[in-house]
Amino acid sequence: MASLSSSSFSSSSVGRSSSRAHSSRSFHVPVGSRVRDCWFMGGGVPEMGWVPRASMPRKTVIVQCARAVEPQPHPQEKQTRRKQRQMNHDDDEDTTSPRHADAVTAAAAGASPPKSSSSQKTVKDSQRTKLPKQQPLKVRTIRCTKSRNEIKKAVEDHLGVDFADSLLDAYPRLALYEPAQVTMVLTYLRDELGFSEENLHVIFAKYPHLLGAGDKLDKLRETVAYLRKMADLTSAEFRKLAMKNPRCLTYDVADKLVPAAEALTKSYGLSDEQVKETFRRQGYMLVNHERMAEKVLPVKDFFIEEVGMSEKEFKKLLCIFSTLVSLDVDTNLRPKVEYLRKTVKFNDKQMRKAILSNPYMLGLRTERIQESIDFFAKCEVLPPELASMLTLQPMLVNLNAKDNLEAKRRFFRDELGVNTRAFRLLILYKPQTLMPSLGVLKEKVKFYHEEFGLSYEVIAKRIAVIPLAYAEDTLRYKAKFLKDFLGWSDETFTKALSNYPAMLGYSIEDNLVKTFEYLEEDLGMKREAVAEVLANHPHVFGYSLEKKLRPTVSYILRLYPNATVAQAIAAAKHSFENRIRPRSELLERLDLLWRYSPRYIASMSMKDFGDKFTDMELDVTDEEIRAKKRKVDSDLKV
Q1: From 203's CA, which of 119, 121, 362, 581 has a CA 20 to 30 Å away?
Q2: Angstrom distance (rounded) from CA 594 to CA 563
Q3: Are 386 and 373 contacting, i.e. CB atoms less than 8 angstroms apart?
């Protein structure tokens, strides 16, 4: 999580931004590429700074006090005072003035006196909708100064001293909240919903104003209960949804969530299970669906008729990204799909698969997508390869080319020593490796090096199969299990992990234990022998027990008379249909299975295998054997 420290704030934009200020109470502050309204909490000149998008949330407002000055009135207060002065001036006019004389004359004639322009203006202003009365700045300032320390103490107790200081510096408006309400919200989230301190850091970095929901705690409880029931979420799943966008915790059930569910069912045609899946995936996007319901039909016709989706696939698309219907077909969807087909060279099948996997790319600017495509071209990825790679991992186009992809490429090249060819292969065959953030990549590389003893050369070579998405505690637990269950030493574990780091990504109960039990119980191997085989061939953990390991080993042990279990397991790494079965059948016709091990036969290249067994000199004169040899030659040529 990015730090909220105010040390990164720049004061160089004070002059640039001061023209936007309306007063010391209400002004506009540029944040990233957006401008947000905010209230200045206290007297002083606002010091406004540009905040990097990577270090602060999107709606962050940064306000700091440079020096104490006399607070100025709000613009509405200025206008009111101006009217009052004008009215007082009219009441106290000199009786010798021409205007007064005209008024006296008109009164004597029985006519109404002429109205002044200021009176007419006052009538017009009285017909306008008045703004809500604002608290005097001096009262607000005293209140903020008094409650800041109390709120800071409440936040410190739950989130830590450093985070409390950074949060209040970044969001001074939090000082307006009641300390008791802040404490109630923090206690509810931590004690009743089970959020950890790290979880709360993520939540309040994204949406700090959730701290002010203490006065509506009953509604907050109602929203949480509705979301959990509607999406059938466990406690952990709900926490994940809330961390993704905590704003959904503040949605009113009757005004927002219930109408959204009805719109998904009636207008979008989703079933109850699909509505549940929509809430589970994107509970924070559901507030505008009543407004979008009228746009469903043209969007549906576009995806079914022009993209070639079935109605079932379109409903699946809505479950993933239901606000897709807010995009206009003529100005957004159709041009974007045509651009992807032309630039990436997607065929119809690849286009459908990419959209179903990553519908968010249809909401990206064309320039943003082009930057990502240019980056892959610089990595020597050819257009046909680009289409296959983005079909496998279309989320890559969502990443910023300059700030994200290029930074990761420099990390692989400069710090890990991955050359251009190896990085190109990584993109083509394991593009999901680029999805974690650069910080996560660096932390995991350091973790594997320090915790498990993998060299940086091995990490660079095996980076595509290293599990990067798992928490460090999970990886430590699996490593301890393998050492204890199989009796591996630290050196044996490091050797096995160097050969196949992906084994730490497999389930203990569904994969590791079942593989061990098959070798020990079904094949009759001793525990020490199983541990040795798995240490030498850890890739066995990655095989499907029913579709790969069991049928391959059974076939080899049945066909090869002198094969051992270890040899059969070693040979199982090769393709059964393309190598093991056809080569074994040819050797069976030549009656040579007894002479060679299955691992040797399966590991030979096609050229070496053809040269060895088609040019072999047979020392027998039996015509049947020679006929078999001629048959082998013809099969190999085919």
Answers
A1: 362
A2: 9
A3: yes
Taking alpha carbons only, the member of 532, 530, 500 closest to residue 513 is 530
Q: What is the pLDDT of residue 89?
A: 55
C-alpha to C-alpha distance for 516 and 499, rounded to whole angstroms = 18
591 in the Ramachandran plot: left (φ > 0), alpha (ψ -120 to 50) or beta? left
CB atoms within 10 A of CB 120: 10
What does the pLDDT read at residue 52? 37
pLDDT, position 374: 92
Asked if 138 and 71 touch (Cβ cutoff 8 Å), the reply is yes
Q: What per-residue confidence (pLDDT) applies to 286?
A: 54
Q: Residue 595: how many CB atoms within 10 A of its CB?
A: 11
Beta-carbon neighbour count of residue 333 at 10 Å? 22
For residue 115, give every residue at least 6 positions away whose Cβ sits within 8 Å of its Cβ, in sequence order, or none. none
- 173-185: b (≥16 Cβ within 10 Å) or e: bbbbbebebbbbb
First to last CA, the chain: 59
What are the b/e assignments for 133-154, b being 16+ CB within 10 Å?
eeeebeebbeebeebbebbbeb
Neighbours of 196 (CB within 10 A): 10
CA distance 313 to 21: 50
Q: Across the 638 residues of the chain, what is the mean pLDDT of every consecutive 10-residue run?
A: 37 37 36 35 35 38 35 59 64 48 48 46 43 42 57 82 82 80 88 89 86 84 88 85 84 83 80 82 60 77 90 85 81 91 90 90 89 91 88 90 91 87 85 86 89 88 80 89 89 90 88 88 88 89 88 89 86 87 85 84 83 55 48 47
Token pair, residue 530, equals 């199983």
- Under DSSP, the state recorded for 399 is S
Question: What whole-number distance in Å separates Cα of residue 440 and Cα of residue 434?
Answer: 11
Please choose, from the candidates 140, 202, 210, the residue with its C-alpha nearest in 3D space to the C-alpha of residue 175: 140
Query: Within a 10 A sphere around the Cβ of 156, how many other Cβ atoms?
Result: 14
Contact of 69 with 22, CB cutoff 8 Å: no
Q: With CA atoms as reference, report the closest residue to 348 among 340, 359, 357.
A: 340
Amino acid 317 reads L
Q: Quick one: DSSP state of residue 507?
A: -
* pLDDT tens track for 44-53: 333 333 333 3
Q: What angle do CA 555, 561, 565 make, to 5 degrees?
A: 60
Q: Which pLDDT belongs to residue 627? A: 55
- Cα–Cα distance for residue pair 339/357, rounded to 1 Å: 18
Task: Return the closest-CA partner of residue 357 out of 425, 274, 432.
Answer: 432
Q: Which residues contact 585 (CB under 8 A, 6 or more apart)?
A: none
**Whole-number pLDDT of residue 27:** 36
Cβ-Cβ contacts under 8 Å for 377 (sequence gap 6 or more): 386
pLDDT number for residue 467? 84
Give the integer Cα–Cα distance in Å for 316 and 591: 55
pLDDT in tens, 461-474: 888 788 877 888 89
Residue 337's pLDDT is 92
Give residues with Cβ within 8 angstroms of 138, minimum separation 6.
71
pTM of the model: 0.57
Task: Identify which of 440, 437, 439, 354 has the alpha carbon closest to the alpha carbon of residue 397.
Answer: 354
Q: 346: which 2 tokens?
A: 């997607």
39 phi and psi angles, rounded to 5 deg: -110, 135
The answer for residues whose C-beta is within 8 angstroms of residue 439's C-beta and 6 or more apart is: none
